[in-house]
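User: For my dataset I need records formatted as: sequence, then C-alpha cells, nothing else. Please produce one.
Assistant:
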Amino acid sequence: MNSPYDDIINLPHHTSTSRQRMSAHDRAAQFSPFATLTGYDSAIRETARLTDTRIELDENSKADLNERLCVIQEQLEEQMEISITYFQSDNKKAGGAYITATGCVKKIDAYQRTVVMQDETIILIDAIFEIEGEFFGIFEHRE
C-alpha cells in the first residue's frame, strides 16, 4: 500500500545553516502552560496559609510573666539567656504566629512596654506568652 508521504518519510531531518539549533529547555518552554490569571496561584497559597489564634492568658499566668520580667530587669547585667515565646500578628489575615526568641535581654522599656533583645529583636510585653530559662529554675529552688 502506498502512502502520499512515501517520498519524504525516510529523508534526514533538516538542519538550518543560518540558525542555531534550539536547546531542549528552550524548546520545552514554548509548550509550557500559559498562566492566564496572573497572581491567582499566590492568592491561593495566601488563602491556604494557616495562622494561629492568640491565646488569652489568665491572671495567674500574667502575674507569673510579670514576676519573670521583674527578675530579668533586676538581673540585666548577668546577661542570662532566656527564651521568650510571643504572638506576632499577621499583616495580611486574621491571626498570627507564635515565635520564640532566644538570647539575652538588652533592656526592658516600661514606657513603650517592650523587651529589647541583644540582637535588636523588639517584643511587645502584651504579646508575650511564655518566658523560660535555666535561671528561673535556679531562682525558684532558692525560695
